[in-house]
Amino acid sequence: MLRYSNRTIFGNLEVKPGYCVWNLSNVMDGDESKQALANLMRKLKDVAASGDSRRKYATDNVTTGNFETIYGLMQCTPDLSEIQCNDCLDGAISRIPHCCNITFCGGGVRPSCNIAYCGGVIRPSCNIRFENYRFYNHTTMLDPEIPPSWPASPPFADISPEPEESGNTIVIVISIVVPTVVVVLLICLRLYLRRRKARKNLGVKEDEVEDEIKIAESLQFNFNTIQVATEDFSDSNKLGQGGFGAVYRGRLSNGQMIAVKRLSRDSGQGDTEFKNEVLLVAKLQHRNLVRLHGFCLEGNERLLVYEFVPNKSLDYFIFDPNMKAQLDWKSRYKIIRGIARGLLYLHEDSRLRIIHRDLKASNILLDEEMSPKIADFGMARLVLVDQTQANTSRIVGTYGYMAPEYAMHGQFSVKSDVFSFGVLVLEILSGQNNSGIHHGENVEDLLSFAWRSWKEGTAINIVDPSLNNNSRNEMMRCIHIGLLCVQENLADRPTMATIMLMLDRYSLSLPIPAKPAFYMNSRTESLPDMQSWEYN
């Protein structure tokens, strides 16, 4: 802390002037997180206020039940008394509801305190801050402050005390030093074990946790740079419009082509999703995943800067009667295998297990060699490496690609991504959108049509007529794999590792698929337009 004034400030508790600080990139989710934060702040306040005249300071973290880690810091100017520090911190904490909605931000700062989670309150005597990343360095432990037991003696003086006095002095020193050292060591050990346990539960190494914010900072672009690159987001550079905003083509000053996703202010993708996409995609490196170059967060503008993929998205080709002819079976099979490799990396081979939750044709981009790249990680969720499934009350995604257990019960897992992959495979094979296949005046959804054709022994009818039958066996095998992926019972669906084996080893026998979810057109009578959506 740094403060200067033209008047005496030492030992004076001051709470004015004050102001709020906003940090909209951080979000606290749910009552459980708020309660965990309240407990953490209460604990830190007691530790900070009880500090000595050299330092009144405390840091710690807490992990909530939904695996969110909250890091906190409290500090008073060391010239304050314990009572003054307590009063300062209590007052700053009480200002949180007045400064910001705790759902989106929290924090407070006085001359002696400041608070920030997605925001803060700044005043002159203390600081409180909380974030969902570690923003402080390791705290050096101070030696216990022990007042001298006797005045200093002049040089060469006879300072030998009487035997009884010497013994009493030693006992006093030992009685002060030993308990203090023991308490300090126990506190350090407890903090170490708690942090180690939290990192072990999350499957994240210590240096990864501490470097997370550094990664984000290194990727940040200046808004003016992106504005110039896209010619002020001109319509001529607009590549498309999605549920969360528009995508623009741009060229940086060094000639590098980029794609800029400009999130709309009223989009369903909030700060949590924005942060997800930045931090998750920045850590992912795979040839079948779109590469994130950086982001911009300035005022109300939230921009994501990706590598430029010239051939647009998969839906642009396979659902267009004229464009689909450009994709022969060799190209389509290459796309299927590429998507499978990208999902396998997300589920099993990356440092973190990630469930995409919004896999669909429009989120598969095609590069200049027509190789697929999975894009749009705004809805992705991180789960424990050994976790099989998780639940949410906030269901997001695209109707028709969502697994039934997720759409109806909020239960998602790697198997819900497998379901979406199966729908994609059948779309790529048929060249038809999953919402319906027309037979004269009759409309049948893709899964029902594929299942009925398979049962009747006419599965080849699923295949896009623009494809020749030179690779009939390979096509039939992919139909088989697609039907295995969309089975209603998630336990029956294969993993992405098994799917890769099925695609690579033709000698591997495949099990008989069971009935897919949403069979018999049960949910297509009033099928909405295919778009990203969410409900609580």
DSSP, total strands: 21
CATH class of the largest domain: Mainly Alpha
Give the biggest beta sheet: 5 strands, antiparallel
Q: Tell me the overall shape.
A: elongated
CATH superfamily of the largest domain, by name, is Transferase(Phosphotransferase) domain 1
Radius of gyration: 30 Å
* Beta strand %: 15-25%
Number of helices: 14
As laid out across the biggest beta sheet, the strand order is 7-8-9-11-10
Count of separate structural domains: 4
pLDDT < 50 stretches? 102-107, 110-119, 148-162, 384-388, 519-536
How does this model look, in words?
The protein contains 14 helices and 21 strands. Helices cover 36% and strands 18% of the residues. By secondary structure, the protein is of the alpha+beta class. The relative contact order is 0.07.
Give the arrangement of secondary structure elements.
Layout: E1 19-22, H1 31-49, E2 56-63, E3 69-76, H2 82-94, H3 96-99, E4 108-109, E5 119-122, E6 126-131, H4 163-202, H5 206-218, H6 223-229, E7 238-242, E8 245-251, E9 257-263, H7 271-283, E10 292-298, E11 301-307, H8 314-318, H9 329-349, E12 353-355, E13 364-366, E14 372-374, E15 381-383, E16 389-391, E17 395-398, H10 404-409, E18 411-413, H11 414-430, E19 437-439, E20 442-444, H12 446-455, H13 472-485, H14 496-504, E21 532-535
Antiparallel strand pairs: 1-5, 2-3, 3-6, 4-6, 7-8, 8-9, 9-11, 10-11, 12-15, 13-14, 16-18, 17-21, 19-20
Which descriptors would you attach to this protein?
536 residues; alpha+beta; Killer Toxin P4, Chain A; Phosphorylase Kinase, domain 1; 4 domains; 5-stranded antiparallel β-sheet; 4-stranded antiparallel β-sheet; 36% helix; elongated; disordered C terminus
